[in-house]
Batch of 3 targets.
Target 1
Amino acid sequence: MWAALLQHGLELLAESEAHLAAPGQAKASEAPVKRTRRARTKASQALKPRKGKVPKSAIAEYGKRQCRDYLKANLIFMTRRRSTVPESVSQQILQQNQGRKACDRVVAKSNKKKKAEGTVFTEEDFQKFQREYFGS
């Protein structure tokens, strides 16, 4: 009985390893899987190289998808491009791009300078106050 269980277990293990080793290949003992005409043509077209197409290098494709640093190119572009825009145009653009939030609003600067506040009392008023309250 133990020998039969062991033999059955080994057969199952051999079958599972065979499926893992060659999943795309059909076994000789099993009937081949039939494909539809559409599937056959699609598979054959995928294998054929297209006219004028060159297979892409995997390294080139990997390099394309890598993150690039455009800072240097952008700085060169910005320093070469020195277009002067009139102040009125730039102010109009900035004004149009302002949002409705309070943090986006520009605080209006008051051009009025505050005058130095002086006292309305004269020296005689201070002396009179001192005499009345302190008695000197």
Target 2
Amino acid sequence: MANNIVMSEEQFSRLLESITSTSQNANDEHIDRLAQSIASASIHSAEIYLFIYLSQIAFAKCTFRFDGQRSYEKVEEFINGITTFKKIEDINDKDAVEGLALLFTGTAATWWQGVKSEAKTWDLALKLIRQAFAPKKLPHDVYMELFATKQRDHEPIDEFLCNKRALLAQLPAKRHKEEEQLDLIYGLLNISIRKNVPRTEIKTFTDLLEKARHIEHIQREMEPTVQARVEIKRCTYCGKRGHLQKECRKFKADSIKAPAENTENTIKCYGCGAPGVYRSTCSTCKNKETPPKPVSFYAVHSTLQTSTKIPTIEVSIKGEKGYAHIDTAARTSIASRQLYNTLIRHGTNFIQRPADITLADGTTKTTNLLTTTIDIVIGGRILPITLAVIPEASENRTLLGIDFLETSGIVLNLPQRTWHFIDKPNVHFNFLQLKNEAIPLKTIKRLSFEEPKEELKSISESYSDFMKTHCASEECIP
């Protein structure tokens, strides 16, 4: 005999309200029977009718859920699942729309609370889901995504074709026939498949899958043999097979026995070979000077004696030898006054160009530079160099700027006081070790550095004569 329960009228009313509120379209017959069973205190009968009632609620037993992920594939998977379930369970459109709330979680549940009043029909509800979480792509976007990637090595043909055909399905209906779709996808296949399966032998996607799967099966059978060959190891320390140097027991044992060498002992002076020092700090080579010799162009007037020597290279221009400083802070190579006079004597043409010059103190000055491109002999090579001349400068140096260093491929090794060409790293050239003193200039017959006895022309007249005589084109005329 069933057990009886006692419940007040207030409790009974509250229970009926909670059951009724679960669905606006609840089955009245089941509600009445459930209420009568509770009123008669028959728990067993109440449980039976409650189970029958809940089973009639739309999508109560559906296992599909959607959390609001913005993915075309996920949205279509969800819509196809619930549409099939609705058809099998024979749920009418009105109940299906009401039951959708049971299938949404997370972001989708929050979104549905705001738009459920707009979903008057089942088709409209599905349209709202697609618009919110899988907006339809434009055809040109589909094509761009289609051709963005090709089939990777070891990517299964089934997975590749599945993804590509899913993209083509987003195009307007009947946009491409199957043969046209094959033309679009065939060029994206892996080279191993295209090599063995000509396009002319494929009429449908079924043909492509059958032939491509056969090729993949053969490749999988060949892979173990190829991998076995690749996995053969040889130690570079002991010469034995089967392991690498980092796994070699002999190498580890010898490393423990050998004393740890100080990294400083691996450093040596490039000049004299003294261990543990760079050439710039070597007591033997530090104060070793390069004997000066007469040159055609050079200028240095600082008499401050310091331990640091300016990187200087011997060069040759127009057959005249001279010294040039390395200046990585100069973007343009500069010709000294002596080199400028040498070039004038050899008939070099210059072009006048306005330029802004930043001085050492940071100030900017606008002036007219004279530029020319000539050949320079450095390190046994003949290289082109563009030199700029500051007309008003009289005691400046010849500088090899960063423009020439980059184009000629010169690499500086300042600690060892050497330099080399980037394509010849083993051939080193030494920087000159010059004292900060005046360097004797060659005696030049055609040019005199002494002040002439006759009256000098004015600066403007001299400049005008130079421009008429040596400029190469009309660009020189200010």
Target 3
Amino acid sequence: MGWRMRDITMPNKYSDEFKADAVALYQRHPELSYRQAAEDLGVSQAALKVWVRQARRAAGKIPTLAPEAAGQRPETAEEELARLRVEVDALRADKRSMRADLDRVTEERRILQKATKYFAAETTW
């Protein structure tokens, strides 16, 4: 029986505190790329990406792959339909709000264009 790579576990090289500090540093400085932050910390880019993703998932910012993985039961068709209807209603309300904002901004722009023409014609140097 031969050995396989997945049978070998790598020792945990970094403490949980170091990982949390690395994630916090990366999140506090959005101008840093993964590469730059990883170089500053002396870790691999892939490790930092994994830590950030794990932290985001733990904070609920990234959904888990399957409801079963999070200890939840799968959604029934009725529950999914109800959830989607609520989402559609929210999106329609957002659309109405955005349409009203667009109409208001379009009217303001039209007024400003007229005012610009008026003052440009009035001003003679």
